[in-house]
Fold this protein.
Amino acid sequence: MTSDEIRETFLSFFEQRDHQRLASAPLVPASYDPSVLLTTAGMHPLKPYFQGLEAPPHPRLTSCQKCFRTPDIDVVGTTTRHLTFFEMLGNFSIGDYFKEGAAQRAWELSIEGFGFDPEKIWVTVFEGDEELGLGLDEEAVEAWLKIGVPRERIVPCPRSENFWQAGETGPCGPCSELYYDRGLEWGTEDDLPGGDNERFLEYWNLVFMQYNQDPVGTLTPLPNQNIDTGMGLNRMALIQQGVDSIFDTDQFIPLMELGRSLATNPIDERALRILADHSRGMTFLIADGVVPSNEDRGYVLRRLMRRAIAQGHRLGFEGEFLPKYVDVVIATMGAAYPELTREHDTILRWVRAEEQGFGRTLETGLSMLDDLLAGGAVSGEDAFKLHDTYGFPIDLTTEIAGEREVPVDIAGFDALMEEQRLRSSAGAGAQERVGARQEVIRQLSEEPTDFTGYEHLEERTTVAGVLEQGGRTFVKLAASPFYAQGGGQVSDQGVVETVDGAHATVSEVLRAGEDQAVVLEGDGALKAGDTVVARVDRPARTATQANHTATHLLHAALREALGTHVRQAGSYVGPDKLRFDFTHGQRLSPDELKAVEDRVNQWVLQNDPVRPITTTLKEAQEMGAMALFGEKYGDVVRMVQIGAGDYSRELCGGTHVRSTAEIGVFKVVSEGSSASNVRRIEAVTGPEAVTLLRSHDALIREAAGELRTSPEQVPAKVADLQQQLKAAAKAGASGGANGAVDVGALANAAEEVGGARVLTSRVEVGDAKALLDATDRVKNAIGDAAIVLGAVTDGKVALIASVAPALVERGVKAGELVKVAAQVVGGGGGGRDTMAQAGGRDPEKLDDALAAARAHIESLLA
């Protein structure tokens, strides 16, 4: 069977048995689930169903889910089966069939669908765990015996093998795994499933999800007994295709052959496997909206890409090669995952940018490693600096060091890596907040609130539940006009009034799935059953709606002006302003920003209607609707269409104006960097925008008065004053120690890197004080920039770094820059994030030191 045939055999089998087939959810988990950084199992998108927070579209479901597991990044290539990206086939029952039904279906598909010899199938069951207060899973044992599996082929295994949980807390339960016996040629008669051997190959895990674990070690029965199974498609392909390694199956053969065809150095199977796996992972991550950066999912993606690039260089690949791998992945898997073809251009844009950027720093890393190896040992700190600062993979460091028989302090490196991993993991605090919110809403009432806020802003309703907790009053209303925070839009504010005239202020609206509760402040004592009037703050909602519709227009204008690689990466929509984060690798030029602002205002003036449309997810996608990064969508979705939909269709649950003219006016306040390869625009609309424009007018008039000119002549007057200042500064410096420093030439030598001005240069000055004076003058001439200047004085090296606060926020710190440079010239130093100095003993390496500082800046701004 091919991989495509395995996928279809599985899904069709369960579809024919009354399971609804679901499309794969993105690799980026929905925002309601911060427990994982990336989707690691087929059940993650279904957690609200298992927890009873949402009603499933059908009690029986089946899917082939895209998955990514970060712990296996460093293991890939060293084994025949480990992958980072993989497909997980699964069938799910929410309160329908349980252990016996799951076992029967798994046995039937194994025999009839995949043609297994029943004598070669073994199963494992949960042996029990004293800490959890559970014994042997007798129910599972009986289910397998009833099918006809001999007792000797039912093997009890401990909690580490046969108890499944997605995280420290959340849905969990015992499991039963199916193993394929490959025969004695793969092991011995003493081997058993679950043991460390190659004879028994696990191919299917049946999870009996019947508990919720919270806190750790405490089990509470779930509302329903559920089934969650997982079959690794690639593992099944290995068995079906009769090969020894996953990398010899049909999805990987084209990638392995591509690597062999590009290699000019001796073939290294491990390097070929890393390239094959990582190219799949990076292609799917970018297609699902992830871009390379130094944090969270972007950091995972960047690690993948840089490890792949390093392996390509080891194999002697010439020219750009990642785009070739992307094309093979899409050719192999694009039919099953149309998003790959749809995002083809965007994927190529990001892989090319990363390959070009990392290619420049790779040579610097190799040069620095050579210097470290010459010293006879590589410390953990040095190895981590190569990895973290220069993106130089640790396995490449250890391989090259091993070839020269130089030790590397791996323990020290691992300790620093563990700190780094904390920065690329989901926040436990966020998970705790989500869990607490869900629990509060569940305690108030099992019946979900009916949200009526799309239609009107006032609702006569009843109180469904009241809870006093932590000094706050939580109230669930039977029907509520209050919008609960979600999709970037803040929650509504307003009041809840009783028939007696008492009222309480709504300060916050909590969301859990489709349910909600309001947080009240004030003296309105309420109890379940009370009749109340819930009233939304109309001016605040109106301003918020204008800003929300404006974000849709802004998104469309950015994609039109910059390209379809632009995707929303976060937002804030409130009554005061809008903030929009989007994927893009460089600062917008003034002309680009003006074009975007003009385009939005053009659409505002067109007075196009804004229409929410309820449709199916498939139809919305076919119409080209944009999905919000990190949100979860069901089969039926709400699509917001502006005009005829030719420039803006987005899946969105937020509130919007009735037509674009209600926005009034759109004005960009700022544009800057939010994270690596993510830009941020803040803007205002309506009355806030008018107030801002009036304040700008007032400032211009005030400046004109001070300059004794008209408002129209202010720019020319300022330019004239700047020329006079430059001339005075040049005249004042002509006889001093810095007279030889041509500040204008240095300023002109500054280059644009990652949307920032960067200058690294050698200068000729008399002493360290003169170097400091020169740095100040250059900084004044360039403006916001990262500057590193070096000079040789009295046979020693002097270094100074100056970094603008805006670039410090992006991670560029003067103290780190001088340390990187000083290490090359055999010295040291430090200082503040914005200004630092260092010295060194080796003047001959000054140019290398400046190159190292520049490479460090580029790696941070890439």
User: Anything to note?
Assistant: Residues 423-432, 734-739 have pLDDT under 50 and may be disordered. The chain has five domains: 3-246, 253-423, 440-536, 541-693, 737-861.
